[in-house]
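Deliverable D2.4 — example input (structure tokens):
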């Protein structure tokens, strides 16, 4: 989400996460033409929600977004190959989001119902004789 108050701003949409590094930078690919980037401001405050299919949580992050329009800027992202950089000249827009706040949010709507289903699953596993499985859930939260 573009939180800028400018008249022409990058519209909300679905983006693909290309790469995330240890310094809190996320490179995102938007399916917008590079020619349209001139109408948008280059830097703006932004917020993003990252979903992964099958997970019972999502990540909400905020920070400063920078639209990257040149191959020199794309070189900072190790996941952008030479071939991808050539294709980006004609289609696609890269945005680097410098994260300053990250929160993991559970999507469980009804905690009681989820606990009941977990109990049934554990009981069934006990009857069948399978070992108890523990769910792995990302909980790393930081703020700079």
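Example output (designed residues):
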């Amino acid at each position: 989400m573009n939180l800028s108050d400018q008249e022409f701003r990058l519209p909300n949409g679905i983006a693909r996460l290309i790469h995330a590094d240890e310094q809190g930078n996320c490179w995102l690919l938007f399916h917008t033409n590079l020619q349209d980037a001139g109408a948008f401001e280059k830097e703006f405050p932004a917020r993003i929600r990252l979903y992964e299919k099958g997970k019972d949580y999502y990540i909400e992050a905020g920070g400063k977004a920078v639209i990257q329009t040149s191959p020199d800027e794309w070189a900072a992202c190790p996941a952008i190959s030479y071939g991808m950089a050539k294709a980006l000249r004609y289609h696609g827009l890269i945005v680097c989001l410098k994260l300053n706040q990250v929160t993991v949010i559970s999507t469980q709507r009804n905690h009681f119902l989820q606990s009941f289903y977990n109990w049934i699953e554990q009981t069934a596993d006990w009857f069948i004789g399978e070992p108890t499985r523990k769910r792995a859930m990302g909980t790393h939260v930081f703020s700079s």
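The helical segments are 71-74, 82-88, 111-128.
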